[in-house]
Amino acid sequence: MKYYDVIIVGAGPAGLRCAEILGQSDLSVLLLEKNARMGQKVCAGGITRKDLAIIDIPDEVIEHKVSETAVHSRKRSSSANAPEPFVFTLSREVLGEWQRKQLEHLDVEVIAEARVTEISEDAVTVNGNTTYGYNYLVGADGVSSIVRRYLKIPTEKRLIGIQYLIPSKQEPKLEIFMDSKLFKAWYAWIFPHENHIAVGCCADPKLMPPAELKKNFKIWLDQKGFDISNAQYQSWPISYDYRGYKFGKTFLTGEAAGLASGFTGEGIYQALASGDTVARTILDKDYKSDAMDDVLKYNKIQNRIMKFLYKAGPFRGMFHELVVRALNNNTIKQKINSGFS
Predict the structure, then answer these.
(1) Predicted confidence band at 338 (pLDDT cuts at 50, 70, 90)?
(2) Domain 2-340: which topology?
């Protein structure tokens, strides 16, 4: 049995960032990815300046630098054209392949098509027949994390995201649509990409059944005149059930740790920050992570907004109108944009 100081399960943004940091140390590192390629995950594909503060993503990975945004309620709209881009769209596969290339000259072994099928206290079994030993184990394997299951940590708080990828060459503009009747505490979005737009929505299935969300989304698509005849439909779960990231010598990152936002579904920022934090914690047990503190504070605010809007019930639409009205005040608009990005 081959032995590694650290085994990372999952090569998404969190696992790849963790591997990059650890690969610069003297530790032996094995990165296992169940898919053939890195970054094969359904995602709206948006990042902000928060992400770029953690990892320097080059322009060739970015599809659009978005400075024009619009937020809509049922009765009002607010548009903004910021002096600098604050949202950036990209392909998760392109990001994954770029992150993978950062490991080429580091001491990290990467094995693709390597599904972890069993975990013990000092070894993992891959594809049912190959076993590797470890000292530290990192779960970066997403919402259905086998590492989280090994730790016997349940996942009870999830969102369901649905979207269509619609062929389009429109100008790079991010739009948010708040509609209390159709989406309750959540909203619909339009994210611009190179050859298409991602048009989607999300909700907690315990608070809004998936069948209702899908039906209401179709109503909204028809209202807005979207042609989905040639669109690609996608649906995926998102975990926001955070219960910690350090469990002895086993760690959880990204959605394996439940670090996505329960309001927006955002997860790349949290994945990068947690992957970075776990790597540095393995290297220094006394490491204090400002990045993780920021993530937890950010998520706490986001989840409070979601819960407040859901509990607002029949008054939710009124709050949506107040938000859009406030966004037409330039000072408030700048503060909100800064808070989210």
Answers:
(1) low
(2) FAD/NAD(P)-binding domain (3.50.50)
